[in-house]
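We close this part of the discussion by returning to an individual protein. The sequence in question and its structure tokens are set out directly beneath this paragraph:
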Amino acid sequence: MLHTLYRTLGTAVHALLPAVLPVLNITAPGWETAQRLGRYQDTFQHSGPLIWMHAASVGEVQAARVLIAALTAQLPGSCFLLTTMTRQGREAARARLPQVLCELAPIDTPQVVSRALREVRPDAYVCLETELWPTMLQEISRAGIPLLLLNGRMSERSFRRYRLLPGFMAELLRNFNAVGVIGEQDGARFRELGAKQVQVCGNLKYDLPPIDAGAMREKYRQLLKPDSKKVFICGSTRTGEEELLLPVYRRLRAETADGLLWIIAPRHLKRLDEVRRLLNEAGLEYELFSDCAAKGQNKDIVLVDSLGELADLYAICDVTFCGGSLVNKGGHNIMEPVRWRRPVCFGPFMQDYQDAVDLVLTAGAGFQAQHAEGLADCLSALLRDERLYAQTCQAAERLAASQQGSAQRQAELVMREIRGNQ
């Protein structure tokens, strides 16, 4: 009944469009009427299948990027249309995927969706994460086009909300030929709501290529020569965080018998002078990372002044703090240090990486602190308690391993459905 009501409302909205569109074109020129009405004029030239992917916004675009790379390798000649709900997401997609047609998604009315499907004629439709538009899903299923939900995740909050509409959700999820989810808990929630053919695949965004951790650690040990010192890396720090981190560093240094090497990597190099002034005012000696190779590191603080170094530099760490999280900047990618089988600590402001937070905390691979003092407590406990440290490192190793192969597993789901539909 709810599906019928939703379609009826969609039809009513479509009937009002002739009156509404002229106003929108004047008051909201960025609305881009043609794409919102499902008019995609591009001719898709391809010798292989045409796959339509839908990503809500910027975060899902990164998942699409990984999946498209895996599918391109497995399906030569394949072509992709990537749609997003937001203009910001579309621009991010165009910047990161110049070889892919990236457009805005059509509005979810029966007439518009039918027109879009006639123009695009995809061989498969992939919905990334949990961007569920009822009419789109119904029309694709009725057209006999393979429909997949990939990189699916479902928070406890969303699950409780969806359970209030059990029949509606069950009917909606039955449209999918296959559902690939990030974790076991996601899978259990999707199954309880009525999804079939659910497979746990890991997270596309964190399917990083295999690494030789030992070789990378040795490279940076030769460069920075920490000897027996513990290595504390603060990565992607933002304005105001270094000041909060100073007492954290001083406490850890006082508690660490063999000494502490503090590596600070600001997110933006234009802030280097600001951080240098802070260290100078605090009476702390430091070395620039760029000078270490030439002179040999001999200070207890290293300030990273080069781009593209941090992701691999995490290899040398004992403990890490991921920046943008003690101040309200949305956080940064906490899976980068986890990749090196090391614990990661971070602050309360991680809204841009909540999926990674859920992964790390559930696995026991790191800790979230609510303030700088709490961060110091977490880091101190890791450095003092050998058993806790070993357990957290092992959890990080298991978590990193669980994400490897995610792209291949989810690409195989797509290929299976396309081949089964030929």
Observations:
- The radius of gyration is 25 Å.
- The domain at 213-403 is CATH 3.40.50.2000 (Rossmann fold).
